Amino acid sequence: MVDPRRHVPRTDAVLADPRLVAATETEGRAAVKAAVVATLQRVRDGSLKPDEVVGAVLAALPGGLRPVLNATGVVLHTNLGRAALSPAARAAVVEAAGHTDVELDLATGRRAKRGRTALAALQRAVPAAEDVHVVNNGAAALVLAATALAGGGREIIVSRGEMVEIGDGFRLPDLLESTGARLREVGTTNRTSAQDYERAIGPSTGFILKVHPSNFVVRGFTSAASVPELAALGTPVIADIGSGLLAPDPLLPGEPDAATTLTSGAALVIASGDKLLGGPQAGLLLGSAPLVNQLRRHPLARALRVDKLTLAALQATLTAPSTPTWDALRISPTALRQRTARVVALLTAAHVPVELVESSAVVGGGGAPEVTLPSWSLSLPSPYAAPLRTAPTPVLGRIDRGRLLLDLRCVPPESDPVLADMVIAVAGQAAPYTGPALPAGPAAPADPAPTSPAAPIGPAAIGPAAPIGPAAIGPAAPIGPAAIGPAAPANPAATSPAPTGPAAPTGPAPTGPVLAAGQGA
């Protein structure tokens, strides 16, 4: 009998299999190669036949969505799923995954209003709203309003300066016209007055639409009609505020919020749940009871309704003391610098060419485009970007002036050792660093004054009855493999001597595309 251990396939031969070549394009070469190496060891151990290797590798690869570490410095990164759910929201999703009373009154045994407890929590968070409704995303909320209130050829009056593209090629005019409504554009790109709207009002007017343009900003000779001015015209005003801020926030002074917009006279406010609110993807409709009820009873509302998991996550977000989004926006530069310095010390001890540098972060998701958050980052050679993206726990940073910056603002603190492990592993596979010596000890300097007057750091009320305050949150589930503790950050793959020096490495340019740190709406 032939011993199968004598016929272990070569690693490169296995990687050349067309199925694994295809998997490499989606999962990354590092992840596929790691799975191949582990699988070949099973052949050597005699627990797997040589002809079963490729199938076992494919089975070992992670399927579906992969958790990543967001070190881009963009708090609400559209490509990374925008808001990370709080521990309370994650637990609520798990709890609701089985059978639940989403549409049942346990006291009477009768059918009940779907998601009534989540809707009640939303209404408590915004007392100015007479009634609320939730659909599956912000664009769906706008489509529902346009269909119910202006479908069949009625007009929606909107400023030319607010006819924006909302991301991924979807444009507001196309979205609204798909409902059967007609658009009545008024004003110009840079200036629109209340009189422009007033002249357009007629018997066929359905409503006036006020759109927050998110990260589209016009400066200079500009003017726009306010919600109170438009409400005074006597036609219902629907305001799409976009980012999901429920109450005024001094950190984001230019960002519209639901409470202020409603008290200013808007009949209906539309917002997203997965942006500044920090919850799941959802479209929030808040406003007058007759309008909200009209939307709730429209046939399209049935096609756009949210599932029980979204309702559970939304309610937990509204009632929890804090969210990862809130915490990431408000972490102090001092705390962030000290935390980053500890990671730099771990990497320096493992002979990784790294520096502690001052940087800046942004809100993202189309929110507060002119607010800059003072921050601190790890600075690494730019060729590390591609292998970190395809590491067992992917780490996403951004390229700035030829260096890879990793901002820990959005990385859960308990995942810092995991991030360090990924960087050490990549450094061990990289070519020896030949540049000048880097600073050997990233001691934390004195905290400078914040560099952005537009972004004060401080708590803000998100809702009187359901504040999302800056309280500490419970530990989230770690992302990725078990962390190698700081007491033993050994770099088994590194063979080069300790670096002797500071400047950018002279190694090759990144071999893969750099993930954009954009702010899609």
UniProtKB/TrEMBL annotation:
Enzyme Commission number(s) of this protein: 2.9.1.1
UniProt pathway: Aminoacyl-tRNA biosynthesis; selenocysteinyl-tRNA(Sec) biosynthesis; selenocysteinyl-tRNA(Sec) from L-seryl-tRNA(Sec) (bacterial route): step 1/1
Ribonucleoprotein is among the record's keywords: no
Main location: cytoplasm
InterPro entries: PyrdxlP-dep_Trfase (IPR015424), PyrdxlP-dep_Trfase_major (IPR015421), SelA-like (IPR018319), SelA_trans (IPR004534), SelA_trans_N_dom (IPR025862)
UniProt gene name: selA
Pfam families: Se-cys_synth_N (PF12390), SelA (PF03841)
Name of the molecule in the record: L-seryl-tRNA(Sec) selenium transferase
Family annotation (PANTHER family): L-SERYL-TRNA(SEC) SELENIUM TRANSFERASE (PTHR32328)
Molecular function per GO: L-seryl-tRNA(Sec) selenium transferase activity
Domain of life where this protein originates: Bacteria
Domain L-seryl-tRNA selenium transferase N-terminal: start-end pairs: 5-44
Enzyme class: transferase
Gene Ontology CC terms: cytoplasm
Composition bias type Pro residues, residue spans: 499-511
